[in-house]
Each structure stands twice: as structure tokens, then as C-alpha cells.
From TrEMBL:
It is a multi-pass membrane protein. It is found in: Membrane. InterPro entries: AA_transpt_TM. The chain crosses the membrane at residues 46-65, 128-153, 159-177, 184-206, 226-255, 267-286, 306-328, 349-369, 375-401, 422-440. It comes from Aureobasidium pullulans. Keywords: Membrane, Transmembrane, Transmembrane helix. Residues 1-16 have a biased composition (Polar residues). Residues 1-22 are annotated as: Disordered. Belongs to the amino acid/polyamine transporter 2 family. One of its GO terms (cellular component) is membrane. The lineage of its organism: Eukaryota, Fungi, Dikarya, Ascomycota, Pezizomycotina. This is Amino acid transporter transmembrane domain-containing protein. Its main location: membrane. GO terms for molecular function: L-amino acid transmembrane transporter activity.
């Protein structure tokens, strides 16, 4: 291997995988987006335990509130297999993204990685999808917070005003510049949602019949081991489960702020193991005891009193989740704007003006979107189909193929591995097209039936399946 400095610089700038990462450790550090420095703002302060909790909070909150309702469309068996299958796939594609990022240290986001394999046009397309995805997720978080405040206040004011309040809280929390500084919020957020869902799980098992079901006479419970949904309903439910663990592209900017970026896998595996176990156990129990009467978000499934208790405990988590999604989207734009500028890690007016413009500007867009499509699970499905299908399925496979092109003409095992990864690309396209079609059909039916009111309506947008 050449030791010429110009060779090493070119190697890392164009994104070619270093032949020996250990020998290039110093060079790799030089090409990190954020430098470990005592002057200016040091972003590289996240250890792997804190990274694990940030990953947990990014992935866990919204999924555990939406999967029980998706179980009704897929049935207990189909839903359980979907949870296991999608989370296994999400974990693997997250490994592919993290490995590619650590082999190409100039990459700060999934858009930078797309630029390495597909050029500037692919970089801009991916960047747009990334921003749209996390703006949608921020909007879903705003909907969740407004529903929670509605539950606690007994609908004391118009839901739009609660959404405005939620947007302000989320924007202020997201305005903290470093992941390390919001780390303590993620601990509180993860603990609050876990406790709230645990209370819900216990509460639903103590009722004779679901809270939303008729309390006298016969009724259809709606629990199925195997269900036979329409294509649209099945795709929406599948996308809801998929997106509950597909936000792994949000982990990539965190890697750039880790003290040791190569601890990424350790944090990822712990996170996804906890997430998968929690999704599977919590969702199956809630669906088993609520059937078709499960609410979305699921915290409203055990009656008004428990709903208020659960939302009171979970409210910090809902705010933190939306804060993380907004922070990730804003950080992407912030780095894109100031990456080659001395203002990136300096406490200047340009630095702060750019950062606050990113956070509050995207928060305003999220608010408008949340009020335009105010049903929680539809927002999540929309994010999954339009954005995360290409970001979390197709693109990671392309990244792997870029670094392993030689496998195409290698041994039989290497060729098999190459073509299996190649199949991920059409799979992502299928989920994107089919899922978007399903969400559009379901939203159209919801508007026609009155389940969704007009945009910026004062109606409470929580609902039962």
C-alpha cells in the first residue's frame, strides 16, 4: 500500500475504503466532520453508552405506540412475524450504513454516503428524502404530544393550540446543539415511555372487555391469530411496523459526535435487541386484550383514567422523540450549510443564526404537516413508504455493493451474498410504491368516513382501530 500523503488524502476524500484502517487511524481522524478540539465547540463527546440510549429513544417511542393497532390488520401471527422480520432487516441495514460510514469518515449523513455511490444528484435526492422523513416523524411526535395534552386537560382547548404549544416545546428542546447535551433528556424520555407502556400493558389485562368496546351486550372482539387484510390495509400496517425501527439513518450523525465512532456496532446491537423484544411483547399483549378496539396511539387503550396516567408519564418521552427527529433533520442542514466554514465549530452569530433558523424553520413545517394529516399511524406509514423504504432498504444495499463489487466475480458464496444484497434494492422500491398507494387509499377513506376532520381541525385525533 502506498504511504504517500496525497494518496491517503485522495483515498479518503473520494470515499474509497482504506486498505488498513489501523495504519490510517490518524488520517481517518483528520477527515472526521467534527474534530476533537479544545478550541471552539467540541461535538465529539458522546460515549457508546449514551449513544445506545440516544438510539433507543430515536427508535423506540413512536413504534411502541403504533404497532398494536397494526396487529389488527395483520393478525397476531402475521404481526409478530412482521415485527421480527422487519427489525432484523432494520438491524442489518443499520450495520451496513454504520460500516460504510466508518470506512468513509467524511460522511456525516446518509446523503453524504449516497453522494459517494451515486454522485451529486443522488446526494441531493437522498438529502431531500432524509429531511422529509424526519419532518414527518417530527409532525407525528407533535400529534402525539397534542393528543397527550388533550387527554390530560379533558380537551380544555382546541387541539390546534395544543399542537402549537407542542411545536414550541419541541423546537426549544431541539435547539440544543450537541447530542451529548440532550443525552440526559433521552434517559428521561426512554424511562418515561417504557414505564407508561408497562402500566398500559398491566391495565389492559385487568379489564373484562376493552375500554372502547360496548360495555354491555355482545360485541365483536376482533382478535385474530391470522388475518386477511386488503392490499392497502396490509401495506399500511406493514409500513407502520417497518418504520418503527427504520430510523437508523438518524444514527449516522450521532456517529460523527461519538468519541470513538467504531463503537457504533456495540450501541446498535444493544439498542435493537431491546427494541425488538419490547415491541414484540408489549404489542402482542395489548392486541390480545384489546383486539380491534386498540387505540392509536395505544396509550388510550385502557380507559380515560389510565389514559391520563399513561400520557402524564409519557409526555416527556413524546416531546424528546420529536426533539430528536427535529434535531437530526436540522443538524443535516446545518452541517451542509457550514461544513466548509469556520463557523461550524465557532460560537459566532452566523453559527447560532444558522442553527436556530434550521430548528425553528423545520419545526414550523412539521406543525403544518401534522395538522394536514393529523392521524398518528397514517403519518408514520407515510414516512415509512415514501422515505424510509429507499433510505433503510435499497440504499444500504447499494452502499454494501459499492464496497464489495469484487464479490460479483468471487467464490460461489461471495456471488450469492452479492445478489442477495442486490435484491434489497427492488424490495425497497416495492415497499415505497405499495406502501404509498396503501396510505393514500386509507387516508382517502378516512376523510370520506369522517375519521379525519378538515385540516387544522379542533377535533381530538386519537382513534381506535
Amino acid at each position: 500500500m502506498s504511504t504517500d500523503p496525497s494518496y491517503q488524502e485522495k483515498n479518503l476524500q473520494i470515499g474509497t475504503q482504506p486498505e488498513d484502517p489501523e495504519k490510517l487511524e490518524g488520517v481517518t481522524e483528520d477527515f472526521e466532520v467534527f474534530k476533537q478540539t479544545k478550541d471552539g465547540v467540541n461535538f465529539r463527546t458522546v460515549g457508546w453508552p449514551m449513544a445506545t440510549v440516544i438510539f433507543l429513544k430515536t427508535i423506540f417511542a413512536l413504534g411502541v405506540l403504533s404497532i398494536p393497532a397494526a396487529m389488527y390488520s395483520l393478525g397476531a401471527v402475521g404481526g409478530a412475524l412482521s415485527v421480527i422480520g422487519w427489525q432484523a432487516l432494520n438491524t442489518y441495514t443499520a450495520v451496513l450504513q454504520g460500516d460504510f460510514r466508518n470506512n468513509h469518515p467524511r460522511c456525516h449523513s446518509i446523503a453524504d454516503m449516497a453522494g459517494v455511490v451515486g454522485g451529486p444528484i443522488m446526494k441531493e435526492v437522498t438529502g431531500a428524502l432524509f429531511i422529509i422523513a424526519y419532518v414527518i416523524l417530527t409532525g407525528s411526535g407533535i400529534v402525539g404530544v397534542s393528543i397527550g395534552i388533550n387527554a390530560l386537560s379533558h380537551h380544555a382547548a382546541c387541539s390546534v393550540w395544543w399542537a402549537v404549544l407542542a411545536t414550541v416545546f419541541v423546537a426549544l428542546a431541539a435547539s440544543v446543539r450537541k447530542f451529548h447535551q440532550i443525552g440526559w433528556l433521552t434517559w428521561i424520555g426512554f424511562a418515561s415511555i417504557f414505564i407508561a407502556v408497562f402500566i398500559l400493558v398491566i391495565a389492559v389485562t385487568t379489564r373484562d372487555r376493552p375500554a372502547a368496546a360496548p360495555q354491555t351486550g355482545d360485541y365483536e372482539f376482533g382478535f385474530y391469530a391470522i388475518a386477511y387484510p386488503s392490499f392497502a390495509a396490509g401495506m399500511v400496517a406493514s409500513c407502520t411496523i417497518f418504520v418503527s425501527g427504520a430510523g437508523t439513518s438518524a444514527m449516522l450523525p450521532v456517529i460523527s459526535e461519538m468519541k470513538n465512532p467504531r463503537d457504533y456496532r456495540k450501541a446498535l446491537f444493544i439498542c435493537m435487541a431491546i427494541v425488538t423484544a419490547a415491541y414484540l411483547s408489549f404489542s402482542l399483549v395489548v392486541y390480545r386484550w384489546c383486539g380491534k378496539w386498540v387505540a392509536s396511539p395505544s396509550l388510550g387503550s385502557a380507559g380515560q383514567t389510565i389514559k391520563m396516567v399513561c400520557y402524564g408519564i409519557a409526555l416527556p418521552s413524546l416531546v424528546v422523540s420529536a426533539c430528536l427527529y427535529l434535531h437530526v433533520a436540522a443538524k443535516y442542514i446545518f452541517v451542509r450549510v457550514l461544513r466548509e466554514s469556520p463557523h461550524l465549530q465557532s460560537n459566532t452569530m452566523v453559527h447560532w443564526g444558522t442553527w436556530l433558523s434550521c430548528t425553528f424553520g423545520l419545526a414550523a413545517v412539521s406543525f403544518v404537516l401534522a395538522e394536514a394529516v393529523p392521524i398518528f399511524d397514517y403519518l408514520l406509514s407515510l414516512a415509512g413508504s415514501i422515505c424510509f423504504a429507499p433510505l433503510a432498504i435499497s440504499l444500504p444495499a447499494w452502499l454494501w455493493i459499492h464496497d464489495h463489487m469484487h464479490y460479483r466475480k468471487g467464490s460461489a458464496i461471495k456471488q450469492f451474498s452479492f445478489w442477495m444484497h442486490a435484491l434489497f434494492i427492488p424490495l425497497g422500491i416495492f415497499v415505497m410504491i405499495g406502501g404509498t398507494y396503501g396510505v393514500v387509499v386509507q387516508i382517502k377513506e378516512a376523510y370520506a368516513s369522517g375519521q379525519i376532520g378538515s385540516a387544522f381541525s379542533c377535533a381530538d385525533n386519537s382513534n381506535s382501530t
